[in-house]
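Entry 12.
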Amino acid sequence: MLAAGAKGDLEFQNDVYHNYRVFFPAEFNATKTTIIYPATQSHIEKFGQQPVYIVDESPDDYLNITLPSLQKSKRFDTKWVDNILDHEKETERIVFEDPDKESGFVLLPDLKWDGHNVDSLYLIALPHKRGIHSIRDLTSDHLTMLNKIKNEGTAAITEKYGLPASRIRAFFHYQPTFYHLHIHFTNIHFDAPGRNAEKAHMLTTVISNLQYDDYYKKATIPFVVGEKDPLFALYDHCLKPPANGSTL
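Predicted 3D structure (tokens):
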């Protein structure tokens, strides 16, 4: 069925099958657009095409290579996250908030989601506690916070959007795009960016691992790095095959 006012040009018809070029009225042609201005070089590289590689980052690699590089860059600059947590920006977009400064969080739609189509549901949980940059910083001391994010975040999504917990994917990225700990909540049917095995770490798995030890301070954690990422040059020696082309 076509909307009133839509026009179609028949391209071909074979029995019950018809191909049309359809032109919809302007009110149906809205496109969600996110503009980053002024865009930094890291923004440009994030959305551009580039070869990528997998780094198996040991705890020593993180402390001696990754962390110093991140500290020198602007990746720990999360002023926009502080604006949300301090209620200076985007207050109208908050879906749920637990205001506890140690174990609470803010839940709001990700910029990639239009906020309406539940099939592509995508929200982000931002803990109030500052100074936790990624899963590398998590210890068993954070279990209360993580369990609250899992239980309260899922319940809030179910209440507002009608999506049951069994259809909600909750996960971390490593490496993350920005370095204030955050958890992604998506519809399980949505092909969310970064849901692949070498990038995503399920929230329930992280909680389970932390119950036994400070797992993420001791584990080797793989991550994907692009050739234009400053980290690539630091790990280049272990990513590219020898000059003779051998991969052994």
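Annotation: The CA atoms of residues 53 and 239 lie 7 Å apart. The mean pLDDT is 88.
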